[in-house]
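Supplementary Text 2. Reproducibility record for the structural model of the 281-residue chain.

All settings were left at their defaults, and a single model was retained for analysis rather than an ensemble. We include the record here because the model underlies the residue-level annotations in Supplementary Table 4.
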Amino acid sequence: MNRTDIKKILQANELAPKKKLGQNFLVHQATAERIVELAEVGPADTIIEIGVGLGSLTLPLCQRAGRVIGIEFDSGILKYHQNNKSLPENTQIIHQDILKTDFAQLAREHGSPLKIIANLPYSISNPLLFKLLQHRDIMAWAVLMLQKEVGVRLCAAPGTKEYGVLSVLFGECATVKNLMQISPEQFHPRPKVESVVVKITFQPRVEQDYNSELLVKLVKTGFQKRRKTLINCLAASPLLSLSKEQAGRALQETGLPETIRGEALTIADYIRLTKVVEGLL
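Retained model, structure tokens:
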């Protein structure tokens, strides 16, 4: 499916890319096929595709996967597929907002952790990433097309300007691999930014001796005001109930200087800090 095909389908069905939904249709078929190949989809897989669009990714997915469940929010696109029977029989489309989709129910229905592929609207990238984190125990992997800036943040190292909350939280529970970069010319309409495709492979949760919810609070606190020292962020955080004295003690027991900023801590540092703070609360 190329740019000409996409434009013809849109025109013939009185459809148009909706800016409010962040719709940018992939028009380079070889790229779609390469994404599915790099995702290592097999005939035993049930794949959840977020944003079916006109089927650029769906069609190569259906050729490799046993079953594809597409979550599509645009009722016009849903109607197009229903009227034209444009997708193979091993595809099911659900008309739903992905941010309201019950992932736990989907996992129960097909009896295994979820495998997700998505060309995401950039506007929902962060909410969806946090939703994946919340459901990490029922996630196998997710292959996501993201704004390049977001993809870089997921893989960023401590001390860099890109390093942030998502870098730490995904580093704690998953491995993130950059699969490929995609230029704006491969979409209709062309976005103003470059895209990347990443694969997030979630690690099985092992028995842990720290509070995951507290870890999230500490990480969010550490990056809330990047130019402030961590001790001041901890003492001022509405997510915690620490005095400055307690915050200083926590850093000391973790082996961190009082001058350190949250962006300098590794994942292991945040986990050690979580254990210490839990004992102070």
